[in-house]
Amino acid sequence: MPRKPQRPCRYPGCPRLTDGVYCEDHAKIMEQHYEKFQRGYSPGKRYGRAWKRIRDRYVHKHPLCEQCLKEGRYVAVEEVHHIVPLSEGGSNDESNLMSLCRSCHEKIHHERGDR
């Protein structure tokens, strides 16, 4: 059976012909670009194992959403929120953490204009 004709590499300015979308050299570059910009950040890389232990300990002590609890609703925790974000000099101290359901967490970040 005959093979498909080769196509030019899609990388701008590359004259090489290839069977795929990009030539071998540019396929690696575009894969790294995809991992960095298209997939978003990985919480595991940003926070790590130590954060997971702190978070689990805090959720164990505070199993209900603190915002909903103030309004008389009992909703299980889905997120642990930093009151002062780490990027603004906050810490992982319990005094800087708040257990929230996903909707309350999104409301807080929406009001701050973060996401």
List keywords for this structure.
115 residues; mainly alpha; two-stranded antiparallel sheet; 5 helices; elongated; endonuclease activity; HNH; nuclease
What does this structure look like?
It comes from Faecalicatena fissicatena. This is Putative HNH nuclease YajD. Keywords: Endonuclease, Hydrolase, Nuclease. The chain has a two-stranded antiparallel ribbon with strand order 1-2. The protein has 115 residues and is mainly α. It has 5 helices and 4 strands, in the order ββααααββα. The mean pLDDT is 87. The chain is elongated and about 70 Å long.
List the helices and strands and how they pair.
Blueprint: E1 7-8, E2 17-18, H1 24-38, H2 43-46, H3 48-61, H4 66-70, E3 79-82, E4 97-100, H5 102-112
Antiparallel strand pairs: 1-2, 3-4
Please give the largest β-sheet: 2 strands, antiparallel
Low-confidence stretches: none
Helix-strand string: EEHHHHEEH
Q: Helical residue percent?
A: 40-55%
Q: Quaternary arrangement of the chains shown?
A: single chain
Number of helices: 5
Strand percent estimate: 5-15%
Mean pLDDT: 87
- What is the SS-derived class? mainly alpha
Keywords: Endonuclease, Hydrolase, Nuclease
GO molecular function: endonuclease activity
Family: Belongs to the HNH nuclease family.
InterPro entries: HNH (IPR002711), HNH_nuc (IPR003615)
